[in-house]
Design goal:
The structure is a single chain. The chain has 125 residues and is mainly β.
Length: 125
């Protein structure tokens, strides 16, 4: 069983940066793809970014390309989401997730097997 805990959310002004961390415990996640999703009030959970097991391949939603960077440290069993040039529309609860069964991480949250509790990111204008 994998437990995921996100850290690093908070309040930031537009144009600022935040770095989210997702620490895994209970089992190593170094063989699994990991993803980041977000959910704003009244909206569905949406894909933000994902990374394959080795960290060699990364995937981004159009809204994140050029501003966000996903990475991982398999020794530390942790994934990261560096968010730069933040905009008010990035305000949401951000979740990390693990996909145990596919080599290429997907954008559909239903494909992911384990989820963290989420961390709030608020971007003020």
């Amino acid at each position: 069983q994998v437990q995921l805990v996100e850290f690093g959310g908070g309040l930031v002004q537009a144009g600022g940066s935040l770095r989210l961390s997702c620490a895994a415990s209970g089992s190593t996640v170094r063989h699994y793809a990991m993803g980041w999703f977000r959910q704003a009030p009244g909206k569905e959970r949406e894909f933000v970014a994902a990374i394959n097991w080795s960290g060699e391949n990364t995937y981004y939603a159009d809204s994140a390309k050029g501003r966000f960077t996903v990475s991982r440290d398999n020794v530390m069993n942790t994934a990261y989401l560096q968010m730069n040039s933040l905009k008010p529309e990035d305000t949401a609860v951000y979740y990390c997730a693990v996909d145990k069964f596919t080599l290429v991480p997907g954008t559909n949250p239903d494909r992911y097997d384990y989820w963290g509790q989420g961390t709030q990111v608020t971007v003020s204008s």
